[in-house]
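Collaboration report, partner site 2.

Our partner group contributed sequences for two proteins of shared interest, and the home lab folded both. The records are reproduced in the order in which they were received, starting with the first partner submission.
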Amino acid sequence: MSRFIIILSMVLILVSCKTQKSIYSVVLTSDIKDKIGTPYSTVNNSGNEYVLAWNEDNSTGTTVVHFGVWEINTGDEIYQGTAIKGKVEWLNETALYLEDYKGIVENGVQIFKYKIDLLTKKKTTLHGKVDL
């Protein structure tokens, strides 16, 4: 009898976890649509803890990339931003690589490559491989 209770408990826990993930999935999908619009693309980080979602909007004649990062298990939004004529991708487990062509000139150099640390929420300029 105790073996049956243990097995039943394990099945209930697994079903509960799967249901919880499904709930987060629906909430997450809805939140992504609300924040960055549709259609959108997604890619998880390699540990499947976070999802990066982005949408390319060409309605103004200039491509604007709207992007955000959400924690998969909770559905919480971690970071949100935009890039003009740019791109965003995973740099590592907890950082993004961002290209943003805003035309900012500093010391005669156009700055448009950034690292976004999702743990500190800091966006820093990249100056080649030394900053990676």
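Second partner submission, folded after the first:
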Amino acid sequence: MRPQPDWLITEDVDYAEFDLGPLKTGKEAEVFLVERTHEDRSCLLAHKRYRPRSVTHKGELEALGFQRANAFMNDRSYRDGRTFAKSRDRRAAERATKYGKRLLADGWTGHELDVMRRLWEVGVNVPYPVGERDDGLLMQFVGDRGAAAPRLAQARLDSADLALAATQMLANLRLIVGAGFVHADLSAYNLLWWHGEIWVIDLPQTVDIAINPQALDFLQRDVTNVATWFSRRGVAMAADDLFAELVTIACAL
């Protein structure tokens, strides 16, 4: 089993946590920087908080610490194959009742944490998943006290770094598919670049290849996104060949 990172201050000691403020905002969540300390040690963590789908009023959102409402749309296609154990819960989710929206929000959090754990175990370079929180999840912060790691789309890479980033991205993509998943929203905006390494982030919409009927469509879109981005920057990448290779990996599962 892949070992827990040695920088992490684990929950079996008497630690303190301090909220250092917001890092970034996305369609369905906002990320905040947290410092965890114990004696003379400290580590930086990212707290991803999912916006409540049942709350849209600006004042209520601000009272909860959010800057804006949830803007993630058409999530049903990503949830295909995921089920609720109770029929009452399934009906509530389908009808988008207040209770159903809360179930869906909880489902995104639990799903992302589970996927991150499984991908971490097989060697995908994802932030280490520390654990679940009432409103989201806690994970490794990629960056330092000076700055968060930039998205690949915003990083300034020379030709050597671009080639290295492409090689690492392909290796991670093969591991993700080999683990039975499709990212389903992969692009240069959901990859980070930090100290010569690619990091894969934003995994709540990740789908299971075996149960989601649109998984291969999502995979083709992912491949097209990243292949186009790298090709435009001088790193040749044949989307059709890469897609065929990954489908072969998926069919062997």
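Feedback sent to the partner group on the second submission included the following. The CA atoms of residues 67 and 221 lie 30 Å apart. The chain has a mean pLDDT of 84.
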